[in-house]
Design brief:
Strand content of chain A: 15-25%
Distance between the termini of chain A: 24 Å
Strand content of chain B: 15-25%
Order of helices and strands of chain B: EEEHEEHEHHHEHEEE
CATH topology of chain B: Rossmann fold
Number of strands of chain A: 12
Largest sheet of chain A: 6 strands, mixed, barrel
Radius of gyration of chain B: 18 Å
Number of strands of chain B: 10
Largest sheet of chain B: 5 strands, mixed
Number of helices of chain A: 10
Distance between the termini of chain B: 10 Å
CATH architecture of chain B: 3-Layer(aba) Sandwich
Shape of chain A: elongated
Mean pLDDT of chain B: 88
Strand order of the largest sheet of chain B: 5-4-1-2-10
Helix content of chain B: 25-40%
Oligomer: heterodimer
Mean pLDDT of chain A: 86
Largest interface: A-B, 22 and 28 residues
Order of helices and strands of chain A: HHEHEHEEEEEEEHEEHEHHHH
CATH class of chain B: Alpha Beta
Number of helices of chain B: 6
CATH superfamily of chain B: P-loop containing nucleotide triphosphate hydrolases
Shape of chain B: globular
Structural class of chain A: alpha+beta
């Protein structure tokens, strides 16, 4: 108690040094916290975002592009597939459910997805709840009616009209189509990137692209839900063996994506550890910089009757109090920064990142306290061993 | 039957090796010194004669090279480090030459710290005791000021209050009047003498100020060879 009281007073007595140490340590902890929180939140967010999609079937090409453009709406869509091919897949007894999807148009940067009415029936197998449920209005039953995703509805509300443009998601928008869409419904949030899209009937898509007949109609992606695991892998292999299309297992694709992100995350984690070590070095420097004053204070305490362990604890308590305060401040700041980044990502991608407390934070706090204890150890040992009379 | 002396020093020598020199330097040589309860003794001698060294040894802060020191019947050489710390907190009130207040603590906290370490006064009464001492020494308005915000004289009075806090049997004051104004000098010295005489404490004061010597019961000259200063208690 005495050690804590004296340590606290000593820290308050050197406000600038203490504040700078706290700021540096806090920033290091904040950085580590942000990395840990966001890494976990991105992983959970991407898993959440990919939930509705079991097997994606698109034109031959890059599987990553197919995944990114379909699930995350973040890349140029792959080429098209004939509608007949989709219908063939839909009739396959191994397919429980299939949703056709046309992509490639946009409305001022907002993706415009042409979807079949099957989208309504796409449900979460665990709960039976539809992934895309209406929050307002009704489903589009006629051509040139549109439903806004939950985030797109911030801009396009019921009754609003818009014209689509060819392309425009990741390149300069092409020419505007003549047809005008009217928003008749708004989806409830699905916590997927599709929340920032506008949904129109496939027929509208074909009409603006003048693909009226079924023979000429094309889709971009088929979302398949096989009946079982065996069918899942059978379909995946069969489709990839044939020359028409490629199929990707969304979960597997996401794992590859995590692996790619993981390399960057590893670098960030290493940087965070380095920052934490530097923060601890700052605590050590702060303890050591006041060496002469500390020697005198130690001698005075000993002369008044404080034992060797008590003065040793004062040095340790200063380091621990600083690191504890730095860890708390850093974690608060880290959570704030992580949430701020999460909101920006959500605004930009509609991926719901929730940087809630991660178990790894305990590790950060433990590491900070351990490093700070190590940093405070040398001044503490010096205080323990110090000769009293020569410093009075 | 006469009471035993509170302080007994026998054949005390303290020497240390000077870096680079072949011989050791004798900082203090004191064949015998006895001080009784209620006695106020002035310790005089030129700078370097060992006044501070003697105080450090009596306070158990320094282990002498030779000789024995007993304070309140306790032979300091028999105490281990921890026991000596506890003993010092309860037995010695020390006014240092340089005051030695902790700069991060307020005047009251400096006194309170000594009370905490001594643990002689009940916990509940410590704050009141510290406050009362500082008021008594004219620092009622400066309780919460840190030493850096106090004048030299005020710091000296805080140091005196701290030394008096635990009502210890022995009071050591190392040149308490050297750097202070006449008013503070009078306040400090009167308070220390009164404490010793009215409460049967031992007061040892190291001083260069010969005008004060008449106020002490005895004067010990550390610069005199073969010094023996014994009194009958």
């Amino acid at each position: 108690m005495l050690a804590l009281r004296v340590a606290l007073r000593n820290l308050c007595f050197r406000p600038v040094l203490t504040a700078v140490t706290l700021a540096l340590l806090g920033l290091a902890v904040a950085q580590a916290t942000v990395v840990v929180l966001l890494a976990r939140a991105v992983e959970l967010g991407l898993v959440q975002a990919s939930r509705p999609f079991d097997l994606l079937v698109g034109a031959k090409g890059s599987p990553t592009q197919l995944l990114m453009s379909t699930v995350l709406l973040q890349d140029t869509p792959v080429g098209n597939l004939p509608l007949a091919y989709f219908e063939e897949l839909q009739r396959d007894p191994r397919v429980a459910y299939a949703v056709p999807l046309a992509m490639g148009d946009s409305v001022y940067g907002t993706p415009l997805l042409g979807v079949g009415p099957e989208l309504r029936g796409l449900t979460d197998p665990a709960t039976g709840q539809p992934y895309f449920a209406l929050a307002q209005g009704r489903f589009a039953t006629h051509t040139f009616e549109a439903i806004a995703g939950a985030q797109a509805a911030r801009r396009w509300q019921l009754g609003d009209t818009f014209q689509s443009q060819h392309g425009g998601l990741h390149d300069a928008p092409g020419s505007a189509h003549n047809a005008s869409y009217t928003v008749v419904g708004v989806f409830a949030p699905s916590d997927t990137p599709w929340d920032r899209a506008l949904f129109v009937p496939l027929a509208s898509y074909w009409e603006v692209h003048q693909e009226h007949t079924a023979d000429e109609s094309q889709i971009t992606v088929a979302l398949l839900r096989p009946r079982g695991v065996k069918e899942f892998y059978q379909l995946h292999q069969e489709i990839n063996r044939a020359s028409v299309a490629q199929a990707i297992l969304t979960g597997q694709g996401m794992t590859r994506l995590f692996d790619m992100l993981g390399q960057g995350e590893t670098v960030l984690r290493l940087t965070s550890w380095l920052a934490l070590a530097m923060g601890a070095a700052t605590v050590f420097l702060a303890s050591y910089a006041v060496g002469v004053q500390r020697q005198r204070d130690t001698a005075i305490l000993r002369a008044l009757g404080a034992g060797r362990w008590s003065v040793c604890l004062v040095g340790l308590a200063e380091a621990l109090l600083t690191s504890l305060a730095g860890a708390v401040l850093g974690m608060i700041a880290g959570h704030g920064i992580a949430w701020s980044i999460a909101w920006r990502v959500r605004d930009a991608s509609a991926i719901a990142l929730r940087p809630v407390c991660a178990p790894a934070e305990v590790g950060i706090a433990g590491a900070v306290l351990l490093l700070a204890t190590a940093a405070g150890l040398l001044p503490a040992i010096q205080a323990y061993r110090q000769d009293v009379a020569s410093h009075l | 039957m006469a009471a035993p002396p509170v302080i007994v020093v026998c054949d005390l020598v303290h020497s240390f090796r000077v870096p680079g020199a072949a011989t050791t330097f004798v900082a203090l040589a004191l064949p015998r010194l006895e001080v009784c309860s209620g006695e106020c003794v002035a310790i005089i001698g030129p700078s370097g004669s060992g006044k501070t060294t003697l105080f450090h040894i009596i306070a158990g802060l320094l282990t002498p090279s030779q000789g024995e020191v007993q304070v309140c019947g306790v032979s300091l050489g028999m105490l281990n480090g921890h026991a000596r710390d506890r003993w010092r907190a309860r037995t010695i009130g020390y006014v240092f030459q340089a005051f030695n207040l902790l700069p991060a603590l307020s005047a009251l906290e400096n006194v309170y710290l000594a009370l905490d370490l001594g643990a002689v006064v009940p916990r509940a009464a410590r704050r009141a005791r510290g406050s009362a001492l500082l008021h008594e020494l004219g620092l009622g308005a400066r309780l919460h000021h840190r030493p850096g915000a106090l004048s030299t004289g005020e710091q000296q009075r805080v140091a005196v209050a701290r030394a008096l806090a635990n009502a210890t049997a022995v009071l050591l004051a190392d040149e308490p009047t050297a750097n202070v104004d006449p008013e503070t000098r009078e306040v400090v010295l009167s308070r220390l003498l009164a404490e010793a005489r009215t409460r049967d404490k031992v007061l040892l004061v190291a001083t260069h100020d010969h005008s004060l010597l008449g106020r002490f019961d005895r004067v010990v000259h550390l610069d005199k060879p073969d010094l023996t200063s014994v009194t009958s208690c």
